[in-house]
Design brief:
This protein is an alpha+beta fold. It has three domains: 79 residues, Rossmann fold (3-Layer(aba) Sandwich), CATH 3.40.50.20; 71 residues, ATP-grasp fold, A domain (Dna Ligase, domain 1, 2-Layer Sandwich); 199 residues, D-amino Acid Aminotransferase, Chain A, domain 1. The protein is built from twelve helices and 18 strands. The strands form three sheets. Strands 10, 11, 12, 13, 14, 15, 16, 17 and 18 form a nine-stranded antiparallel β-sheet that branches. Strands 4-3-2-1-5 form a five-stranded mixed β-sheet. It has a four-stranded antiparallel β-sheet with strand order 6-9-7-8, covered by helices on one side. Strand 12 and strand 13 form a beta hairpin. Helix 1 crosses helix 10 and helix 4 packs across helix 5. The chain is globular. The chain starts with a strand and ends with a helix. The model has no long low-confidence stretch (mean pLDDT 96). It binds adenosine-5'-triphosphate (ATP) and magnesium ion. The site of magnesium ion has 3 residues, from strand 15.
């Protein structure tokens, strides 16, 4: 089976690594160069998209910010899973909010802003502090502004205006202004839906972000009621989108309530722990769904955490001396804040996992992992 992935980053790479044993060959469309490449070696296979489409049984995507022309061509081939509409929804916060409203799913109070008048109006309707997010092309906390009070409003608007002006011409830019949610913690649900409508979800993952970027995810057995609440949201969104493949939903937890932050129509960074903590990893399950194979179990095998390696291309190999630890590099060149790789670690109990995480925090350089120790200390203290 041949599958073309739109996007040639680490997610395509990890899909390729996961599904080789199933005899599924992954080729990746590099949207920057327009070439179809081997996701592991980046060697060019085809010089254009159409050959990539012709020589694949199915097409999927590793990111949602794909131009609509490319999506239309892939959709027309009848091979694209999830469908182009689902991918577009994930890439435009306006469509995403419409979907959440349609599915009657709780989310942060918000307003859509396209003009200065909308901006002024939103500041009257919502209350500070606010977070403003670009409707298009936002990821890893980019294209976001935090607004604490009225005094910052004018400067923030000028910045947003400059962002619109500097963005792609001929498209309608907007920001979504959201009420800051005083969340107790952030969690996400990664799940998978096949072409017959069967769904399976992984246990909710607890996530910690530094500067708007995911830094640590922890998966363990979680409160049943909360898991059921999240699964209900997953089922309604996946069904509404007629979704095929892995879909991730990020939530804010406030007390016992989950508010959806955003959805990602793809395998997700907060699901990387499934590579060793779940019966079937998210990458394999995504391709199983795409290729009409039976879905694999999403059960947690043992408590597992993932630590992102951001902007660093070298960590002490000593991390591998911590039991049940695996290192995953993406083969990318170093750039500040860039996702370069991740570390997965498991324990037979949550306590053992926390202690191994602490061992890793002792080894990892403080400068690149400055929030790790305080976060793990806080996590550990809840377990005692
Ligand atoms: P990523 O690609 O890493 O998921 P993103 O650029 O898509 O990031 P969001 O997930 O919307 O952006 O926001 C990044 C982080 O900023 C969130 O995980 C959360 O920590 C914080 N954040 C976003 N929106 C809110 C909100 N309404 N209230 C409180 N915190 C928020
Ligand atoms: Mg996010």
């Amino acid at each position: 089976m041949n599958v073309l992935v739109l996007g040639a980053g680490q997610l395509a790479r990890m899909m390729a690594l996961a599904v080789k044993p199933l005899n599924i060959n992954i080729r990746a469309f590099d949207v920057g160069s327009g070439n179809v490449v081997d996701p592991l070696t980046t060697g060019v296979i085809f010089g254009n998209l159409s050959q990539g489409i012709e020589f694949s049984d199915f097409i999927t995507a590793e990111f949602e910010h794909i131009d609509h022309q490319t999506l239309a061509v892939c959709q027309a081939s009848g091979k694209l899973r999830p469908n182009s509409q689902a991918i577009k929804v994930g890439g435009d916060r306006r469509l995403e909010k419409d979907l959440l409203i349609k599915c009657k799913v709780a989310n942060a109070q918000h307003e859509i802003i396209e003009t200065k008048a909308d901006f002024d109006q939103a500041l009257k309707t919502l209350s500070f502090p606010l977070i403003l997010k670009s409707a298009l092309a936002g990821y890893d906390g980019k294209g976001q502004w935090r607004l604490k009070n009225q005094a910052q409003a004018e400067a923030t608007w000028l910045d947003i205006k400059a962002f619109f002006d500097g963005g792609e011409q001929g498209v309608k830019h907007a920001v979504v202004a959201e009420q800051m949610v005083p969340f107790d913690r952030e969690v996400s649900l990664v799940g998978v839906r096949d072409s017959k409508g069967n769904t399976k979800v992984y246990p909710l993952t607890q996530n910690h972000h530094s500067n708007g970027v995911l830094s640590v995810s922890i998966a363990h057995h979680i409160d049943k009621a909360l898991q059921a609440q999240a699964q209900k949201v997953f089922d309604s969104i996946a069904q509404e989108l007629n979704y095929i493949g892995v879909l991730a939903i990020e939530f804010f937890q406030v007390g016992e309530q989950l508010l959806v932050n955003e959805i990602a129509p793809r395998v997700h960074n907060s699901g990387h722990w499934t590579q060793q903590g779940a019966d079937t990893c998210q990458f394999e399950n995504h391709l199983r769904a795409v290729c009409n194979l039976p879905l694999g179990s999403t059960e947690l095998i043992r408590p597992t955490a993932m630590i992102n390696i951001l902007g660093e291309d070298n960590v002490p190999n000593e991390v591998l001396s911590v039991a049940s630890t695996r290192l995953h590099w993406y083969g990318k060149s170093k750039r500040a804040g860039r996702k370069m790789g991740h570390i997965n670690v498991s324990g037979n109990s949550e306590k053992q996992l926390a202690s191994r995480l602490m061992d890793l925090a002792e080894i990892l350089p403080e400068a690149a992992f400055d929030e790790l120790k305080p976060y793990i200390t806080a996590y550990q203290s809840k377990l005692i």
